[in-house]
Design a protein that fits this description.
- One of its GO terms (biological process) is pantothenate catabolic process.
- Helix content is 28%, strand content 28%.
- The chain is of the alpha/beta class.
- β9, α4 and β10 (176-181) form a beta-alpha-beta unit.
- α1 (39-50) packs across α5 (212-230).
- The longest helix has 19 residues, at 212-230.
- The two termini are 26 Å apart.
- Bound molecules: cytidine-5'-triphosphate (CTP) and calcium ion.
- Cytidine-5'-triphosphate binds next to α3 and β9.
Length: 232
């Protein structure tokens, strides 16, 4: 589909998308990171804007040009990303967590560069990061304050893709979970993506290998349908 040929079915909807991969500081020059390019999140932002949504894109370390029609909020770490997503989610109809959020961060990042010294290197102690997606869903479940009508996550799985995905959807409590099969040159940093979308209380939707924009459009089809059901 060309951008112009899309339905305007997200007109008037506020959408928050997280994209990219967080970096967790070890010291001022080093970090723990991951291989997420941000391409899928950016495709989601572009297509949502083309379908009429007001888009806030929380971008963690993405080296791509800003998508047309999106407000970009740059972040670095998981804690930064959490603050930006939770703030934007206050007034959002939809949150899609496409970012690869580091599960752990160095527990005590150094203020100055760690120097090489002879002998056994010091281990890096890790602390667990908050789970932003689970937190959003938990807030909505508690019913305290405004909450997005639709909350979606992404998961990259290597083995037992469907079973792992199902368990994750239930554990997080989100509405949609886009499950990618990764490994052997799939998904990370490539323009194409194949996936299955798990739907809470519904049948899974398979998305054949194709451009990330096509996957994004299928996600918005499902989001738009769910918005019509839950928050007309
Ligand atoms: N996520 C999040 N906060 C985290 C970790 C993950 O919001 N601290 C979100 C991701 O953005 C993604 C979804 O949760 O949308 C699934 O991420 P994933 O890493 O697959 O889930 P985890 O619960 O961290 O499980 P795993 O042990 O497989 O990494
Ligand atoms: Ca994880």
């Amino acid at each position: 589909r060309v951008l112009a040929g899309r339905p305007r079915d997200l007109a008037g909807r506020r959408v928050v998308i997280s994209a990219g991969g967080t970096r967790e500081a070890i010291d001022p020059v080093r970090f723990i990171g991951n291989r997420s390019s941000g391409r899928q999140g950016y495709a989601l932002a572009r297509t949502a804007a083309a379908r009429g949504a007001e888009v806030t894109l929380v971008a963690a370390n993405v080296g791509l040009p800003d998508p047309a029609g999106a407000t970009v909020v740059p972040v670095e770490s998981a804690l930064d990303l959490r603050a930006a997503v939770l703030a934007a989610a206050e007034s959002a109809d939809v949150v899609v967590m496409a970012a690869a959020v580091a599960d752990f961060r160095p527990a005590d990042p150094r203020d100055s560069k760690i120097k090489k010294v002879p002998g056994e290197p010091e281990p890096i102690r890790l602390a667990e990061n908050p789970d932003v997606l689970a937190e959003l869903c938990e807030r909505r479940r508690r019913g305290a304050g405004p909450a997005p009508g639709v909350i979606a996550g992404f998961a990259a799985e290597t083995d037992d893709v469907l079973a792992n995905g199902r368990a994750k959807l239930a554990r997080k409590g989100c509405d949609l979970l886009v499950v990618n099969q990764v490994g052997a040159g799939l998904a990370f940093g490539t323009p194409d993506n194949a996936a299955v979308v798990l739907v809470a209380g519904g049948d899974p939707v398979e998305i054949p290998r194709g451009p990330k924009e096509e996957l994004a459009d299928t996600v918005w089809d499902l989001v738009a349908a769910r918005l019509r059901e839950t928050a007309p």
